[in-house]
Design goal:
The chain is an alpha+beta fold. It is built from 7 helices and 8 strands.
Amino acid sequence: MSIFERCSISSEPRLRRPRRTACLTTLLLHLVLFAALVPLRASATVDVYYAPEDQPIDRVAALYDRATTYIYASVYGLTAPAVVKSLVEAKRRGVDVRVITDRERLTDPKQQRALNTLRLAGVPVRINRHDGLMHMKQAVIDDRINTSGSANYTTSGNRYNDERLDVITDAAVTTKARRKFLSMWNDQARFEDWSE
């Protein structure tokens, strides 16, 4: 007999109220159990920005300005003054800021200046020591947001090149991106601390 059959209203008035209360309680219990067993997942949002018209690197800097816990950035090119400033200020606010970049970019004087500024502010920087490029353009912010796309954190990547930046707000995707960053960060065989 289904719950609906058991909960049908009795023709006897003295049984109507207790049976109705018991049935509603049972139904409510089933709904609560169902809700507890079925994970609710808010839908992800993806905001897409294009360079040069949307100036995506300025958007990255704005995200960094709102960070409260951590910023983990893995980016091939890092010279944009707005991004460097936002990372330094985040570090001063007590945010855990870490950067991974590519060793081949160290020949660029602008990249060296940017990395020196970060290092002097106490931001640890690691570089790849493996044969391939560290070619990611990704940031993970506060277990809430991660960014990805083609744009390096450079003036060219913001104002001149045709580039794309995706800002993804999704806990599961962001957790995966954080795990990847920390895996790279802790991989002593493939990455090392940068010092001038």
